[in-house]
């Protein structure tokens, strides 16, 4: 979209919000129902588009894109009316007589910038929250999933007037043009380096924002793990979406006595999941672009592959691979891997994991495979990360009652379910004073200092 058109669209949303600051819940719910119906009507198109973008299996689209979105929509349809109601707060006796309330008000004009890796779900889920709270939205999907981006545009334009919600297609330049405008809220999902650029761009307007970023998520397996279940769950969590998941395990830290058994189990389970020739499997995604393929291929070429490593550039295929403990200053340990490569480190004593985890920025997720309570507590309490799971991975994303987000370099803020409501509204505090009595203590002349000192002494 040309810059002038973009500014017109932005201006129309600004004007719309000015006259629609407080839409009634009935009309919001009816729009959410329309959005749900439109998604349902376009399910097949969504499945085909995501498959065209990176051969994501239909089952994974149903579970990780559509199911998540329907769940969020149903939750908002059911609860938005009660969530939006002003909440009565007990008054402070200093303000006697008064009635105090908190109003949950929309921010206004929101910009949502989405990534390509869950190209439908990560664009629509924040949009549901933003619209349900009464905001307007301009949504910029990723240029790397163009088929899904087109379906998103069709769905949004069929449900909403562009004054309220619109999709803007484009790459970096479009995103930067959008970021030059003054927003009331920016919700960004993407990489840490781009998150920093977004953060700087919006700082000039001091725009409130959420950053849903990535990171290197450690996956720890102690000798108290159920190795067979752990291996299955790690393979599922790592290779769903071909490892292109922000909360996928990035590297393994395993008790050294378990390493040989883990690799044996790993091979067995990979074959059980995807068959002997994974490239033929329709249950395994491809890498999103040649550029992303080349970055991962470079890791394969420079590191010691102990399992997997097969790849095919013309199909952008990379097999699930285990990498022998890389150097901590190597590229593969400096960058978020974001692909089907899994470095494996060993430790003798669990405390040794600190030497690796502390060297890397705070991750989005941490996974601990252990049935030992002391080990679980040690890992939860000693490391800072967005969220995590004991004895599985990724599944904390599923519970919409849990806030989902990072910390430090892995993000700022959170969302999902009621937490999305909190993200896309602001709390406006109102004290409603009554007139039937007006206690004069606060007014001049201040001939009551002595009295007030006595009163103050109760607080000292
Ligand atoms: P990305 O940062 O490259 O791109 C994300 C979005 O930002 C895209 O829409 C892109 O067009 C835009 N963009 C790119 N360069 C820009 C610039 N210079 N200025 C402004 N906007 C720009 O991320 P990606 O490759 O699409 O997605 C993968 C990353 O996203 C990974 O790091 C992953 O961990 C992270 N991610 C995080 C979450 C989460 O919920 N925390 C979810 C999915 C992905």
From TrEMBL:
Pfam family, one: Aldedh
An individual GO BP term: aldehyde metabolic process
Domain of life: Bacteria
GO cellular component: cytoplasm
Keywords for the protein's UniProt record, in alphabetical order: NAD, Oxidoreductase
InterPro entries recorded: Ald_DH/histidinol_DH, Ald_DH_C, Ald_DH_CS_CYS, Ald_DH_CS_GLU, Ald_DH_N, Aldehyde_DH_dom, Aldehyde_DH_NAD(P)
Record: active site: 212, 246
Gene3D superfamilies, A to Z: Aldehyde Dehydrogenase, Chain A, domain 1 (3.40.605.10), Aldehyde Dehydrogenase, Chain A, domain 2 (3.40.309.10)
Statement: the UniProt record of this protein carries the keyword Oxidoreductase: yes
The keyword Cytoplasm is assigned to this record: no
Record PROSITE patterns: ALDEHYDE_DEHYDR_CYS, ALDEHYDE_DEHYDR_GLU
Aldehyde dehydrogenase domain mapped to chain residues: 30-430
Transmembrane parts of this sequence: none
Molecular function, one GO term: aldehyde dehydrogenase (NAD+) activity
Sequence similarity: Belongs to the aldehyde dehydrogenase family.
PANTHER family per UniProt: ALDEHYDE DEHYDROGENASE, ALDEHYDE DEHYDROGENASE TYPE III, ISOFORM Q
Name of the protein: Aldehyde dehydrogenase
Organism of provenance: Psychroflexus salarius
């Amino acid at each position: 979209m040309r810059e002038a058109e973009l500014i017109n669209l932005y201006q129309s949303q600004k004007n719309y919000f000015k006259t629609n600051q407080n839409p009634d819940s009935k009309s919001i719910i009816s729009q959410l129902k329309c959005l749900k119906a439109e998604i349902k009507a376009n399910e097949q198109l969504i499945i085909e588009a995501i498959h065209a973008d990176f051969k994501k299996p239909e089952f994974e689209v149903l579970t990780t894109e559509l199911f998540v979105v329907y769940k969020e929509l149903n939750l908002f349809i059911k609860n938005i009316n009660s969530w939006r109601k002003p909440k009565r707060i007990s008054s402070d006796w200093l303000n006697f007589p008064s009635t105090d309330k908190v109003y949950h008000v929309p921010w206004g004009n929101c910009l949502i910038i989405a990534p390509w890796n869950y190209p439908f779900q990560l664009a629509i889920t924040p949009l549901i929250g933003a619209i349900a709270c009464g905001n307007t939205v301009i949504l910029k999907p990723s240029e790397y999933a163009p088929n899904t981006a087109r379906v998103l545009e069709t769905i949004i334009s069929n449900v909403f007037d562009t004054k309220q919600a619109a999709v803007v297609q484009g790459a970096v330049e479009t995103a930067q043009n959008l970021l030059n405008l003054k927003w009331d809220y920016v919700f960004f999902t993407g990489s840490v380096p781009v998150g920093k650029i977004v953060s700087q761009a919006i700082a000039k307007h001091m725009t409130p924002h959420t950053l849903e970023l990535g990171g290197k998520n450690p996956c720890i397996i102690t000798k108290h793990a159920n190795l067979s279940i752990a291996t299955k769950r790690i393979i599922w969590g790592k290779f769903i979406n071909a490892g292109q998941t922000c909360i996928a395990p990035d590297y393994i830290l395993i008790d050294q006595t378990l390493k040989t058994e883990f690799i044996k189990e790993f091979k067995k389970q990979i074959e059980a999941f995807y068959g002997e020739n994974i490239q033929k499997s329709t249950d395994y995604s491809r890498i999103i672009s040649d550029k992303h393929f080349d970055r991962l291929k470079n890791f394969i070429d420079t590191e010691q592959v102990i399992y997997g490593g097969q790849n095919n550039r013309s199909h952008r295929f990379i097999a699930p691979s285990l990498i022998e403990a890389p150097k901590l200053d190597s590229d593969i340990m400096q960058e978020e891997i974001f692909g089907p490569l899994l470095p494996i480190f060993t430790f003798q004593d669990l405390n040794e994991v600190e030497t690796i985890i502390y060297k890397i920025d705070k991750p989005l997720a941490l996974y601990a495979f252990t049935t030992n309570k002391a080990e679980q507590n040690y890992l939860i309490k000693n490391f800072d990360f967005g969220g995590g799971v004991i004895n599985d991975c990724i599944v904390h994303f599923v519970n919409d009652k849990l806030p989902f987000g990072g910390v430090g370099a892995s993000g700022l803020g959170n969302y999902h379910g009621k937490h999305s409501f909190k993200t896309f509204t602001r709390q406006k505090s109102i004290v409603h004073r009554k007139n039937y009595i007006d206690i004069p203590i606060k007014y001049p002349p201040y001939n009551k200092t002595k009295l007030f000192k006595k009163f103050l002494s109760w607080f000292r």
